[in-house]
Amino acid sequence: MSMKKRLSSSIGTIIVLCAIIIISLQKYQPDKEVITTFIYEWLNDDSRAETEYKKILETGSDNQSLSQPLQKYFITEAAFQSFLKTFYYLPVKILQQYDSYNLIDINITKESNSYFVKVDLELIKEEKSKNHSITIKIQMDHKKFTYFTITEGKEI
Fold this sequence. Notes:
single chain, 156 residues, alpha+beta, Nuclear Transport Factor 2, Chain: A, 5 helices, 4 strands, 30% strand
């Protein structure tokens, strides 16, 4: 009888361990980690980044201290240049109208061959704030962006 108890206890332990491994593997999604890191680097709301973006507003030029590190996320130079021309300056546009902003939340969902990223921001002006959401569509290959566009919320 004790042999049966040990065997059933061992089988139970193995089943629990397998369940934990399966759940862990489902939660570990490298593409989502890459996207999250990119969003935090691009829409960086720390004071250094805001200072750099405000310098861009004042001088009209980017010293590349903020843009250059983002290049590693794009599969080709052309994809990166497209991002720079079209979306890179979104934080600058925000700071043209608001004193500062905070990155509140990032929600990533996968649909077919794309990721939809909803970014919630708090826009602050004269101690008043309002929330704003941006939805981004990203396609990836080998943890690099092949396609990037803002589908909702680019008008601040």
